[in-house]
Amino acid sequence: MTYRQLLRGNANFRHLWSGQVVSEIGDWLNNIAVLALALELAGPARQGRAIAVYAIARHLPLFLFGPIAGVVVDRTDRRRVMIAADVTRAVLAAGFLVAQQLSSLPAIYAVGASLFAVSAFFNAAKRATIPVVVTEADELLGANSLSASTTAATIAVGSALGGLVATFISRDLVFVLNAATFLVSALMISRIRLPARRDAPAAQPERQQAAAQAINFASAGTSEKFVNETAHVATHQRIVAGLRRAFFEFREGLRYVRRDGVLAAVFLVAAGWGLGNGVARALYSVFGARLGELTAAAWAARPRDFGISVLFVAMGVGGVLGAPVARRFNAAGDSLGARMGRSLVLDGCGLALFTVMPSLWTASLVLVAREMNFAIWWTAQQTLVMRRTDNAYAGRVFASYETLTTLMMVSSMYAAGAGADAFGIRPVAAAGGFVIAFSGLLWFLLRRRQGARAPAATDAPKHLST
Fold first, then answer.
1. pTM
2. Where is average pLDDT lowest: 249-253, 313-317, 381-385?
3. How far apart are CA 87 and CA 186, in angstroms?
4. What's the pLDDT at 361?
5. SS3 state at 300
6. Cα angle, residue 46 at apex, residues 42 and 52 outer, rounded to 5°
7. What are phi and psi of 220, to 5 degrees?
8. 50 versus 460: which is more confidently predicted?
9. 114 vs 108: CA distance, rounded Å
10. How far apart are CA 238 and CA 206, in angstroms?
11. Cβ within 8 Å of residue 52, ≥6 positions away
């Protein structure tokens, strides 16, 4: 099935995909300006730390709010979660205008953290919705491949637009456009019509008990002050009980993963990838800014914005070119597991090679090749997880995956930034590449120790119920 057939024949997925296109273009358009602004405010001696702290501020909320997001997504209307998240992010995104006016790095960190806290709910809802609106195995592989290529395309388009607007017009316009894209995304998501949830939870006993208690107090003639105090206590109890339920149900999601050997292996290897990729996330923009100053200082008003933009455009182009390759490779007779492991090893080698490139243009070519290969790894592991996960656990499984990889990235980001300021960006980034390559080798070791065949691309889905 072609992408056009998938989008034409599945209106729900088409609306979900349209929202992804608009909001992700805004994300990457905004990202260039924010990174360049952070580097400008930090000064040459602390650029690595400044970008690392901003990256942590963006990613740590995914770890902190991931468990709660997974439970919320599994127990509420996923479409409403995505719409509410988009509207909230539109308001928060305007905060970058304030941060720029104040010339404040802490304000940049606060706005970025708030945006990604809300994004934890949107991301979990989006990923859990895909296997519901796309139920056929071949369509699911195509949907994941299209999602990967779309993300890559929006990186290229958004970064190019962001670089042009920020370099030649103003950063203020970039921030305004980003806020507007979230509202457009909410409009697209609102058109989705999901099937009724058979696994909807029963009414919450704590809420029923609190309501009955309030009514009893009122009917007995209790004072208004006492009723208000009682209601406040009941509300606090409901919040505590809700957080407790969220923790236990998230833990149940992790137990679900541990019961499946393939899922457990994917999660372990993804943790290693996150550790190495955190280094890359912390240092890509520093590479871009420095290479941009060498290349465009003579003719660009903001060469740092230009350099960062070029590297991120290269990443997007590589992803676009890699998506159809990933779909063909992962649909071939060889197993998804073998493709995933080899691509992960090459991904780490590509990052190490990137660090020794002498110019902005050669570094961009390496990033194109690296992202083409990365598309194979990402599509394979996402499809494996989706096809082996029961819909009732989908939100928690994907939230736990996001939480785990984010925790690993956050763990390495600040160390990478501080190390880059002290020892230089090239050796630190190369070390991140070696960690990723080792994770790919670990995948093959885990498969051999399990003594079981890797799931082939033709394996039937384990659970696709709604």
1. 0.64
2. 249-253
3. 7
4. 92
5. coil
6. 90
7. -85, 0
8. 50
9. 10
10. 6
11. 282, 413, 414, 416, 417, 418
- Torsions phi, psi of 463, nearest 5? -145, 130
Residue whose tokens read 């073998």? 338
CATH 1.10.540.10 fits 3-192+247-450, yes or no: no
In angstroms, rounded to a whole number, what is the distance separating the alpha carbons of residues 210 and 233? 9
Give the C-alpha separation, 129 to 143, whole Å.
11
What's the Cα-to-Cα distance from 73 to each of 175, 185, 189, rounded to whole Å? 29, 18, 15
Residues 187-215 have a mean pLDDT of 58
Write down how long the chain is: 466
Which stretches within 10-46 are classed as H helix?
11-42
Cα separation of 439 and 408, whole Å?
Answer: 13
Structure letter (DSSP) for residue 89: H
| Amino acid residing at 141 | L
What six digits make up the tokens of 167? 């370099």
d(CA 165, CA 33): 9
The C-alpha atoms of residue 7 and residue 23 are separated, in whole angstroms, by 18
Residue-wise pLDDT tens digits, 10-20: 888 888 888 88
DSSP code, position 332 = S
Per the CB < 8 A criterion, the answer to whether 404 and 274 are in contact is yes
The one-letter amino acid code at 377 reads W
Distance of CA 269 to the CA centre of its chain: 17
Quick one: which H or E segment has residue 376?
A: helix 360-387
End-to-end CA distance of the chain: 22
Quickly list H helices, 169-223: 171-189, 205-219
